Give the backbone structure.
Amino acid sequence: MSHNVSPRNYNITLIAGDGIGPEVSGAVVRILNAAGDAAGVKFAWEPYSAGAAAFEKHGAYIPPELYQSIERNRVALKGPVTTPVGGGFSSINVTLRKRFELYANFRPIRNLPGLESRYPGVDLVIVRENTEGEYVGLEHEVVPGVVESLKIITEKGSTRIAKFAFEYAARNRRAKIHAIHKANIMKMSDGLFLRCAREVAKGYPQIAYAEHIIDNTCMQLVMNPYQYDTLLLENLYGDIVSDLCAAFIGGLGLAPGANLGAECAIFEAVHGSAPDIAGKDLANPTALLQSSILMLRHLGEAGMADQVQGALESVYRERRFLTRDVGGSAGTSAFVDAVVAALEGGEC
Ligand code: NAI
């Protein structure tokens, strides 16, 4: 990790995003700055816009300065960015993931205390391949009325994500990995993904390995999520299953994520820009806050990560300042005030 300017001073690229992005990223910056003050850690945030806002300002959806900032800092915190449907510019998220080879999308799914859920005590890890599959964006019209969309699966990409999943499982004493696929239909592409996963699995005899078909997996997850531990998925399946699993713990307002590569890491929530609630002080910043906790661990700031997690959990346990998506009535800013108060050891 070479992103420090000096120990405990961190330059972080900040992409606020759009929709609820500025609200949730502003919330997280405030909480991390407060936690940093208490822990002797300083963050120098380097803010950049991306997507439609960046195009208006700089004439580029991803300004070159943003790329350079991530190259320099190697760590970014990112709010959601709206992607136009059925046309317009390519997804900023997908572009950044490809550009920095952020091949592993890591998404832990765990309940927070104080929140009732149909499934208490869920502890799932989603490992999603983040650079290949249908997301390579290779689509063209063959003849009018016929469109071809390519799904690219490579041995290199599949082996690398399987290794990531098994290494993570081994280091974190996780017992079981399920590779999720549709190799009964996509015999070559998903077949290759599975062959690579099986090969990697041989090196980790202490970790149980199984394979489930994606459609059955969705049903099995809803029937009994406890049967799964770590899920290894291609890009599209991982995207869909992540939202499904977010529902186990209370919804998209809660589910964090990290995009990890050999050189850089971008931390962002599972959710999108939520235009339906943008600018109304309704967004739940917990998902991005939990993503920033993953970032702190990545930076080696485990103590500070525990402090922020503790403050967050105390606000949930107390239930007085929860946002509407999880059954409360507090606005984003009241929730953030409560987390900051909890960090400072005061009443929340
Ligand atoms: P979405 O995740 O933005 O919203 C789905 C539902 O969850 C909405 O009802 C929304 O209000 C709710 N929700 C999401 N995050 C929430 C939060 N933090 N607090 C409270 N409620 C929350 O998904 P949608 O509507 O499909 O996508 C909107 C836009 O976001 C699209 O342009 C999409 O491409 C983009 N997107 C961007 C992502 C990223 O930047 N990483 C990821 C996913 C989608």
